[in-house]
Amino acid sequence: MNKSVVIISVLLLALISITSCQDVKSYRTDTTTSGVAEIVADECFAPIVQEQVDVFEGLNKEATVIPTYANERKAFELFMADSMRVIIAARELTPAEKQIIKERKQTLRSQAYATDAVALIINKENQDSLITVADVKKIMTGEIRSWKELNPKSKLGEIVVTFDSPNSSTVRFIADSICKGEPLGDNLRAFSSDSIKTVDLYDRTPNQQVIDYVASTPNALGIIGVNWISNPSDSTRLSFINNIRVMSVSRADSATRKNSYKPFAAYIKLQEYPLSRNLYIMITDVKGGLPSGFVNFAAGEKGQRVILKAGLLPAYALTRVVSVKPTL
Predict the structure, then answer these.
(1) I need a labelling partner for 125 at 20 to 30 A (CA). Which of 53, 131, 164, 286 fits?
(2) CB neighbours of 135 closer than 8 A, spacing ≥ 6?
(3) 3-state helix, strand, coil in the chain (%, to 5)
(4) pLDDT value at position 20?
């Protein structure tokens, strides 16, 4: 065989081999601090997630994190379909979901993210700001339907209960943790289509619609994640936005000012506020890429400080270094 033909044949085989290897192993150019990454988050936590994304991108100028906000059901559909490899949600994966991840030959890494609270908000004209967990359950199951049943002196009529979405983690929390599996009542309304009666008054995000509706409707009761109503200008984290009133909730048989608590981070930490839930951040992407870098940031000290500032309880204790000068 001609020597030149042999050389050409070897070069062609080498080229085919290299091309095949590149097909088998996708080429990643991102790092933990650069590139583009997509994540999905429960829309109940959109304000805090977006703030973390903004801070992360500010610290890493070559990084772009594109968040998708969806109701809980849709968020998990995207994650389980491998359309997104990072999810921030109010529950961990079920054993069946973990098996799907395993069969895809992926490694699931799950970390605690924060402790959130479900807040009950009412119109500022409504003075009935104390409520028991037992009465919350009765309202959600339809056993109690008017404010007069809670307070005979109330001038308000029907309790109009509003949620963001029937498929949200907030509805699931109320159904599982408060109603304990009892059917939800037909007196509930949501700002997206499903079996719960739909309210469509504002062209805004469902959670913002809940706030707007409660602010303009005296007899409304809104159910919402606390990060949507935290006051960003209050460094003490002891106040909420001022266009609504936040109810204090009690585990006792009768709610009083002494045994009822608002969803402040301190009361969440002390487990005094009864409507709290754990949040998680989960990833199936390989280590070393931008998705991994964002997860490490979100669960790390800087990301956790963003969570604390937003009024949620960080998953990990944060230390504060104080410089003390010796007395002269």
Answers:
(1) 164
(2) 144, 150, 255
(3) 35, 25, 40
(4) 43
Separation of first and last alpha carbons in the chain:
94
Q: How many CB atoms sit inside 10 A of residue 71's CB?
A: 24
Q: Give whole-number Cα distances, 316 to 51, 264, 284, in Å.
A: 18, 17, 22
| 301: its two tokens | 């000290």
Query: Would you state the structure tokens that stand for residue 210, as one six-digit string?
Result: 């809940």
Ranges of residues in the chain whose predicted pLDDT is under 50: 3, 5-11, 13-25, 194-202, 319-328
Q: Which ranges in the chain belong to alpha helices (H)?
A: 3-24, 46-59, 72-80, 95-103, 133-140, 147-150, 169-173, 206-216, 265-269, 290-299, 301-309
Cα–Cα distances in angstroms (integers) from residue 267 to residues 34, 121, 122, 255, 272, in the given order: 38, 17, 20, 16, 5
Q: Are 80 and 98 in contact (CB under 8 A)?
A: no
Phi/psi for 190 (5° steps) reads -135, 165
- Among 303, 231, 228, CA closest to 52: 303
Structure tokens of 306?
A: 């963003």
Burial of 261 (0-12, 13-18, 19+ CB in 10 A): buried
Calculate Rg over the CA atoms of the chain.
25
Q: What is the pTM of this model?
A: 0.82
